[in-house]
Amino acid sequence: MKKLLVTGASGLLGLNLCLDAAGRFDVTGLVNHNSLIGAPFSILQADLTQPGEFARVLRQVRPDGVVHAAAQANIDACEKDPAISTRLNAELPGEVAEACRELGARLVHISTDAVFDGVAGGYKETDQPNPQGVYARDKWAGEQAVLQAYPRAAVARVNFYGWSLSGKRSLAEYFYTSLSEGRSVRGFTDVLFCPLLANHLGNLLIEMLEKNLGGIYHVLSREHQSKYAFGVALARRFGLDASLIEPVSVVDSGLVAKRSPDLTLRVDRLEAALGHPMPTLEEGLEQFHALWEAGYPQQIKRFSNQE
């Protein structure tokens, strides 16, 4: 694989993936409103809500592989504006898959662990999803659209964090910023997840493309913890005051969209396909901290066109 196209290239996953891949591949990042200034990879702007727009870009770039990360990922915003969620999360993935199939480009489509209801936990790829809320239902529909249009495509169910362009896109950034400013925050004790650092996730997605994997894969940490425990671990690693994190139940959160409580997913299938284990929670947090020490958050903010 020589040429890589990444949609949602100004987003949390897309930007980190493009930056990490830029030295190894001819990378083109596709953005909508948030263009990037001075990024070390090619940038194209396109409005993927317009039918046929992705197919036009694909014919222009002619990549060997595509990571489709563009989505409406704000869960509460999806509840408030279900039409844009349907367009971006349910309909567009099928169009992307159809265009990739016609051109012969490998595809990894980004889905979510939230397709499960979180009642049982320990989910395998063969378990039946039961999405709760607009976002989760549309992402589940998007998975089905992709595999129907392009059965050889890969669908990656993910949950990730990292340093973003705005500094406000991930749970880790929320904890870090709030605690650094001495502000108290809440952490859910009854929501379990298996988060991956976006940089680790990006490298795994490229591995999946290079191995031409197809079907559904859980691309997550091999370990899990509550969101409260995640915040406490981050606070301790950065030398911040963990007592500022209040342990609370998601039931008392007042969030618009329902959250699935136990999103622990098994990663055995991907580990077998790639021949190595998924990163641990500690490995992700260590790398997140190392990037901070290296000034990475400030470096990526220079790419923003938002003054």
Structural features:
single chain, 307 residues, seven-stranded parallel β-sheet, two-stranded parallel sheet, globular
List the helices and strands and how they pair.
Elements: E1 3-7, H1 12-21, E2 26-31, E3 42-45, H2 53-61, E4 65-68, H3 75-80, H4 82-103, E5 106-112, H5 133-149, E6 154-158, E7 160-161, H6 171-180, E8 185-188, E9 192-193, E10 196-197, H7 198-210, E11 215-219, E12 225-226, H8 227-238, E13 245-248, H9 268-274, H10 281-293, H11 296-301
Parallel strand pairs: 1-2, 1-4, 2-3, 4-5, 5-6, 6-11, 7-10, 8-13
Antiparallel strand pairs: 9-12
Helix pairs in contact: 1-7, 2-4, 4-5, 6-8
- What's the average pLDDT? 94
Number of helical stretches of at least 4 residues: 11
> Rough shape?
globular
Name the CATH class. Answer: Alpha Beta
* CATH structural fold name: Rossmann fold
| Structural class category | alpha/beta
Task: Characterize the structure shown.
Strands 3-2-1-4-5-6-11 form a 7-stranded parallel β-sheet, sandwiched between helices. It is an alpha/beta fold. α6 packs across α8 (227-238). The chain has helices at residues 12-21, 53-61, 75-80, 82-103, 133-149, 171-180, 198-210, 227-238, 268-274, 281-293, 296-301, and strands spanning 3-7, 26-31, 42-45, 65-68, 106-112, 154-158, 160-161, 185-188, 192-193, 196-197, 215-219, 225-226, 245-248. It contains 11 helices and 13 strands. Helices cover 41% and strands 17% of the residues.
